Amino acid sequence: MTARALLRRLAVEQAECRVPSLTAAIVRDGRTAWFGGRGRVGDGPPTAATQYRLGSITKSMVAVVVMRLRDEGALELNDRLDAHLPDAPHGHFTIAQLLSHTSGLTAEPPTAWWERTPGIPVDDLFKRLGPGEAKHRPGRRFHYSNVGFALLGELVGRLRGGTWWDAVREEVLTPLGMDGTTPRPRAPHATGYAVHPWADVVLPEPEHDADAMGPAGQLWSTPHDLARWAAFLGGDTGGVLCPGTLAEMREPIGVDDGDAWTAGFGLGLQLARSGGRRLSGHSGSMPGFLATVWAEPAEGVGVLFMANTTSGLSGRLLTDLLDILDEHEPRLPDEWRPVAADPGLLALTGLWHWGPKPYALRLLPGRGLSLEPLNGGGRASRFVPQDDGTWLGLDGYYAGETLRVSPDHLDLNTFVFTREPYDPGAPVPGGVAGWHA
Hints:
With 437 residues, this protein is of the alpha+beta class. It has two domains: 2-328, 3-Layer(aba) Sandwich (Beta-lactamase); 343-418. It is 24% helix and 23% strand. An eight-stranded antiparallel beta sheet has the order 2-1-12-11-10-9-8-7, with helices on both faces. An eight-stranded antiparallel barrel has the order 13-14-15-16-17-18-19-20. α2 (57-72) packs across α5 (146-160) and α5 packs across α6. The longest helix has 16 residues, at 57-72. Its EC number is 3.4.16.4.
C-alpha cells in the first residue's frame, strides 16, 4: 500500500508537470526503502543507475571538503580568503561567509549565461570579478552566490594540490561508494530538456564543462548515489566527516525567505522547516535538470528526486512523499531501556531554582545533563562533561557556556541555581534578605 501511494504521487507529478522523466527515492535508517521512476530515458524507464545533472547539490560536496580541511587544521572558517588564495579577488571575504552565502558577492559570474555556455578558466574569472561584483556588505544578509563556490573550489584545489574534483572524488565520493557520480555525463544518462509552456514538445538543453564555475554545479549523479548522499546527510557519514562537524553545517546562519523564516542556509547546506520537520540538504538546477535531496536526521529519513526538465515541478513532491510515508508507515520510537547512572550525577537530578523560577535537571544517556524550566518559557540547554570537571553547554542560550556543579548550587556562567528558591545557605550573588509579607 505504501509503495503504491508513493508511486502514484510520483506519477501525478510526472504527468501533470509534464516531465520527460522523473525519479524519486526514500532513504530510511541509511538504506533505500523505496525507489520510483516515471517517463522515458531513451527506450525505457529511468532506473536507479540513470544519471541526471546534480546542479548546485555539487556545492554541498565541495563544502564537505572545506570542513575536512578545517577539521585538519589547514584553515579556519573565519580566515580571510586571501590568507590561502593571495591572488583571489575579494579576498577579504571569510571562508564561512562564502560557505553560507553571506559574503554579499554577486550571484552569477560576469560572463555569458554560464550554465549554457562553455566555462572559462579560473584566471579569467578572477580578472572579471571587480569591485562592482560585491553587491552587499559582508555578513549583512543572505545572498546566494554561485561565484562564491567557484572561489571555494579553487581554494580546495590549491590546498589539496590538485583540482576541486580530485578532492571531492577521493575524499567524499569514493569512501561513500558513490561511483556513479562524475563531472561529465556517462551512459546511461538522461538528456536535459526544456518543455514548451503551451505545447507538449521539448527542446534539448546544451551541456558544457563549466570550468572555473564547476564547483557551483558541475556534477552528474544517479538516484542510487544520491540516496547514499541522503544517508550521509542524515548522519551515516562513513568516516568522511565527524558527526559534530556535519551538525555544525546544519546550524542556520542565513534566512532565505524573508519574514516567513522557513528556509535558510548553514555551511554549504540548505535548510527548511516544513510540517514540523527540520530538513537539511540542497536543491539543484541546471538547464534541462532539476534535483533536490533532503534529510531529516531526527527521524532517520531522507528523500530525493531527479528530473530532466528545466522547470515546472510543483515544489511539493518531496514533502508529500514524506507525508505519505508518515501516514502509512510512521517510524516506531526506539525502545526505552534503563541505563547505568553515575551515583554522583544521579544525586544532582531533580528540582533547582533560578531565583524563584523552578528548573528540572535530568540525566541524559551518555553522561549528559539537561536543564530546562518546569513550565516552559525560559532558557533550556543540554550539557556535556569536560575533562576539568566543568560542563559545556551544547544548545540554546547557554551554548558554549560553562556550568560548574557543586552539591548546594549550580553556577551557570555567573547565574546561580539553588535547591530552594534563593537558598540562603548557597552563595547567591547580591545576598538573600529572606522572604517576608
